[in-house]
Amino acid sequence: xxxxxxxxxxxxxxxxxxxxxxxxxxxxxxxxxxxxxxxxxxxxxxxxxxxxxxxxxxxxxxxxxxxxxxxxxxxxxxxxxxxxxxxxxxxxxxxxxxxxxxxxxxxxxxxxxxxxxxxxxxxxxxxxxxxxxxxxxxxxxxxxxxxxxxxxxxxxxxxxxxxxxxxxxxxxxxxxxxxxxxxxxxxxxxxxxxxxxxxxxxxxxxxxxxxxxxxxxxxxxxxxxxxxxxxxxxxxxxxxxxxxxxxxxxxxxxxxxxxxxxxxxxxxxxxxxxxxxxxxxxxxxxxxxxxxxxxxxxxxxxxxxxxxxxxxxxxxxxxxxxxxxxxxxxxxxxxxxxxxxxxxxxxxxxxxxxxxxxxxxxxxxxxxxxxxxxxxxxxxxxxxxxxxxxxxxxxxxxxxxxxxxxxxxxxxxxxxxxxxxxxxxxxxxxxxxxxxxxxxxxxxxxxxxxxxxxxxxxxxxxxxxxxxxxxxxxxxxxxxxxxxxxxxxxx
Length: 491
Fold this sequence. Notes:
single chain, alpha/beta
């Protein structure tokens, strides 16, 4: 074993590295059980000649040599060595190497770093009670100056009419967040759209109001804004750079890819306008606290080229996400596209590691894993907190579980003026966790994807507890690549 990273323990935090669906001879072993019984799970795979083994519950990640990797397969689901399997290996490997591997694996088992049991379910109630609201996504503008072909928000309308948030609604949203945040000190507000720069005076007014309130209420606000960049002039950049902790700049990558999807009202592309403005913003922020964020569709399953294009243009913080589109759009990632998309992630991972090692460093969002600390175990079990800790607010002040549920009457949870309505759907979100989802309970990736996106689950399965399969498979491959990169960089 060349490298390992282990857990930080219970009850507050745990490091949970992951290892994905078997590639080639990789094996996944699962001992399923009823609630209250230990579930033992490891996952092993090979990538570019490196053998990685994850102990799912402890979070330990190990790099095995070829002998140890083969010996591992001689251990049963309960972590016990099956001697009859070992005897067959003696024709391929020296006895001394086999016994050394057996001893090392047994040591890892005794240290709780391999074949460890899942003990977190029993602690879940104490971690999830008394949930407070921590973040709001403020829909500053239900309108947009682009007509992106894949837009889940109906080009800004969100199943309704085009509208802009008033300062009154925005101020009341800040009050609502403070009133429902309990003892939590650090709060987050995301300015979203449509295009929030179309209503930027209200953005500024909300920020100034929140700053006056945070002193009185002993809160600390962290602001983020997402923009398509078209209206990002100097005055707006100056304000954002002074007051926003993070900024998300939307661009899909190569000019031909971006302009095919992200078009103005007259049908023309926006790449030539937004690229220089995005570069200026990043330079003014000292290349920190930003992301360029793109979307890939089945029309550009070579999306790695878009990631590399953005890196070549000087962006160091990059996120390019798979589209979530309906089947009739022609843009959706389909079951038959999974192998090609996964192969592209793998190809990109190799280039990514090579570039970082040679000094051409950049971050790709989906390859970023914190193996030393990471989110607390409660967050790993429950995910983003949509519908509970994280809420979206419309221009009229209506509350929804997140931005992707906005406009769907079933998920209207209340308003910032009247509070929560008692809609039972909120209770569904409160009770949602990886143990409530059968597919997640037996999945090695559950502590990293946290059960996946509830909005995607609803969109494709009409059940927030039934994960979106395409998204699951892509997430597993991304984690697989991320762990391989970590192992590569640790040597």
